[in-house]
Amino acid sequence: MLCCMPGVAFVPALLVSWSSAAFIISYVIAVLAGHVEPLVPYISDTGTKPPESGIFGFMINISALLAVITMCIRYLLIEKQNESSHFIGSSCNMFSLCIGLMGCTGMGIVATFQELAVPSVHDIGALVAFGSGVVYITLQSIISYKSCPQWNTYFVCHVRMAISVISCVAFIPMIVFASRISMTKIDWTPGEK
């Protein structure tokens, strides 16, 4: 089974490394340029003004591409495993892939449309990216449980489900707080509402 896709294990690691670098590099440039405060800025704030906006957009688009590749590899892996075990319907696997690809499209929208330039499009992209991401992670956790014990250990399934639960719990306040504010600028002066 493992010989059917040699050499693809580096792609998820590259995705995580590249995405982390995208956030860290744009954050450092934004702080050094004085565009954001160093203490916990909103992620999109670190990619709003040049030069960090170009770097942020480019790197997040590459992250979206790497995520597409990772999800396609996962889809193919499950399909291959499912040929012998029949633990999940092929349509469920395809549905999970489609949800994941929607999330990648949302990432591309976030990267392309800066927070202050086109806020409604940026916010819709973020909602699609995060919402689809939570659904994708949850579906993948369920698929992992269905494939136990032949293709996964219960420990791996529990870790994936824990990440799913944390993602779901974090998504709810994100929606609540994002709906209560309207971000129109980054720089605030004392006395402004």
Kindly describe this structure:
This is DRAM1 protein. Keywords: Membrane, Transmembrane, Transmembrane helix. It is a multi-pass membrane protein. Pfam families: Frag1 (PF10277). Belongs to the DRAM/TMEM150 family. The protein is mainly α. It has one domain (9-186). 70% of the residues lie in helices and 0% in strands. The chain contains 5 helices and no strands. It has helices at 10-32, 52-85, 90-112, 119-146, 154-180. The radius of gyration is 19 Å and the shape is elongated. The mean pLDDT is 91.
Work out the oligomeric state of the chains in this entry. Answer: single chain
Mean pLDDT: 91
Rg over CA atoms: 19 Å
User: How helix-rich are the residues, as a percent range?
Assistant: 55-70%
Helix-strand pattern, N to C? Answer: HHHHH
Task: Report the principal-axis shape.
Answer: elongated
- The number of helical segments is 5
How much of the sequence lies in strands comes to under 5%
Distance between the termini: 59 Å
Could you say how many structural domains there are in total?
A: 1
Global structural class: mainly alpha
Q: How many strands appear in the DSSP assignment?
A: 0
Largest sheet: none
Report the uncertain regions: none
